[in-house]
């Protein structure tokens, strides 16, 4: 008689946290693996799913001494007119761009910092 996945899941579901800890250690020793990144939840407990952030917001935290340069970068990055870009820079701390990729956020942050601004990515 073969043991099914359901049999194994039932047996694991009936174990205490201490028994699960012992089982994980036995797997690590037997197969030479590490369960460091594996989260074990107690039976009946809801496991929180951690999602990697994919959308970022570039926040202009401070203008610095080169206000005109910062306005130029904001205009180029956002497509705003001169007055709108100036108003955005004057109202810092303020989001410059929202819901952009990490690479785009890092590139914009570098441009703004090169212009003398203080920038945060959230």
Automatic annotation (TrEMBL):
HAMAP family tied to this protein: Ribosomal_bL12 (MF_00368)
Gene3D superfamilies assigned: 3.30.1390.10, Single helix bin (1.20.5.710)
Domain Large ribosomal subunit protein bL12 oligomerization: 4-48
Chain ranges of the Large ribosomal subunit protein bL12 C-terminal domain: 56-122
GO biological process: translation
UniProt name for this protein: Large ribosomal subunit protein bL12
GO molecular function: mRNA binding; structural constituent of ribosome
Quaternary organization: Homodimer. Part of the ribosomal stalk of the 50S ribosomal subunit. Forms a multimeric L10(L12)X complex, where L10 forms an elongated spine to which 2 to 4 L12 dimers bind in a sequential fashion. Binds GTP-bound translation factors.
Family to which the UniProt record says this protein belongs: Belongs to the bacterial ribosomal protein bL12 family.
Job description of the protein: Forms part of the ribosomal stalk which helps the ribosome interact with GTP-bound translation factors. Is thus essential for accurate translation.
Keywords of the record: Ribonucleoprotein, Ribosomal protein
Residues spanning the membrane: none
GO cellular component: cytosolic large ribosomal subunit
